[in-house]
Amino acid sequence: MATxxxxxxxxxxxxxxxxxxxxxxxxxxxxxxVASRSLERAQEFAKRHGIPKAYGSYExxxxxxxxxxxxxxxxxxxxxxxxxxxxxxxKNVLCEKPFAMNSRQVQDLVAAxxxxxxxxxxxxxxxxxxVHAEVRRLLAEEAVGExxxxxxxxxxxxxxxxxxxxxxxxxxxxxxxxxxxxxxxLMVFRGERPLSxxxxxxxxxxxxxxxxxxxxxxxxxxxxxCAFSISARLPNDAVICGTKGSIKVLGPMxxxxxxxxxDKETEYPLPEPSLPMNFTNSTGLRYxxxxxxxxxxxxxxxxxxxxxxxxxxxxxxxxxxRKQVGVVFSQDSQ
Length: 334
Ligand SMILES: NC(=O)C1=CN([C@@H]2O[C@H](COP(=O)(O)OP(=O)(O)OC[C@H]3O[C@@H](n4cnc5c(N)ncnc54)[C@H](OP(=O)(O)O)[C@@H]3O)[C@@H](O)[C@H]2O)C=CC1
Ligand SMILES: O=C(O)[C@H](O)[C@H](O)[C@H](O)CO
Prior knowledge:
Elements: E1 3-8, H1 12-21, E2 29-35, H2 39-49, E3 53-55, H3 58-63, E4 69-72, H4 76-88, E5 92-96, H5 103-115, E6 120-123, H6 130-140, E7 147-155, H7 162-165, H8 173-188, E8 196-203, E9 209-218, E10 222-229, E11 238-242, E12 246-249, E13 258-261, E14 264-267, H9 285-297, H10 308-325
Parallel strand pairs: 1-2, 1-4, 2-3, 4-5, 5-6, 7-10
Antiparallel strand pairs: 7-11, 8-9, 9-10, 11-12, 12-13, 13-14
Helix pairs in contact: 4-5, 5-10, 8-10
Bound molecules: NADPH dihydro-nicotinamide-adenine-dinucleotide phosphate (NDP) and ligand LPGCXKWR.
C-alpha cells in the first residue's frame, strides 16, 4: 500500500518535493492531494504534477480521511499555525525546516503531536542523505579518532528573495540556512546541548540577520564553528576534525553527494529530476520521504534520524543565537 501524501502549500519546495517523490516507486509513494490558499494555484499545481485532488484551503486537507501524512511546505511563519491544524485533526505531519519561529512554537507542535498520538518530524532532509548516514557510521566506529572540532559553513546570496529578507516572512540567514549548519553540529555531537554559545552577526535594515558566526563549546573540550550568510557565497562544506583524521562533507553540505574521509573521496549520486526544480539537489528529498514511510510502517511517532527532542534543542540554540545577534520576531511575544 503506497503512502498517501497531502501537500500543504503549492509553492517552490512543494514542487521539488513532488518531483522527488516521482523518483521513488509509485507503489510506495503517491501524492493524493495538494492544498493552497488559492484553489486556482492548487489546481494548476495538481495538473502540472498529476495529482488527483486540489483544495483551496488547508482546512479541507485537514479533513481529508484519505491521506496518511501531510507535508507542510509553506513559509516558516505559517508552520506553527498550520502544523497545529493538521496535528489536532489527527494527521501525521512532516513539516519543512525550520520547524517554527521559536522553541515555544516548536514545543506546542510536539505537545500537539503527542496529545493526538500522531507522527511528527521536522524536515531536516540532510540527515536522510546517504552521505550523512555514512558520516554517522564513521563516527560510531571512531574512524577519525576522538572528534575535537566541527566546522560548518553555508552562504547563499539570496537578498533578492522576499522571504529571505522580510522579517514578516521569517527572513534571515539563521532560520533558513544556518539551521543546516547547527543541525550538522548537533548530529556529530549526538544531540548534546552545547555548554556555551557565542554568536556575532550583522543585520539587514529589515532587522533580520544577513550573516552570523557562531562558536559552540561541548563537553570534553570539543568545539564547533559555524558561519552562514544570505549575502556571501561560502564554501558550504562541513568538516569533522578528529585526533586521527578528518571527514569532509563537500558543499552543498545540506544536500551532499560527496564525502572525503582522510583524503579519500566517495560520490553518492542523485537521480535526475523529471521536471524543473527550484533548489539544489532536490531529488534528495526522496530520502526523507522514504524515511517517513518506513517510520509510519513501523508505527513510529517520530524519526530516530531527527528526534523531536533534538528539534526542540536545535530551535533553543537558534533562539539563543537570535538573542545574541538581536533578531526578534513578532512571534516571540505572542
Ligand atoms: N528543504 C529544502 O531544501 C528547502 C526548504 N524550504 C523551506 O520551505 C518553506 C517554503 O519555502 P519556499 O517553497 O521557497 O516558499 P514559497 O515562497 O514558494 O512559498 C511556499 C508557500 O507558502 C505560502 N506563502 C507564501 N508567501 C506567503 C505569505 N506572504 N503569507 C502566507 N503564506 C505564504 C504559499 O502557500 P499557498 O500555496 O497555500 O498560498 C506558498 O505556495 C520554507 O519554510 C523554507 O525554509 C525552502 C527551500 C528549500
Ligand atoms: O532550505 C534551503 O535550501 C533554503 O531554504 C534556501 O532557500 C536555499 O534553497 C539555499 O540555497
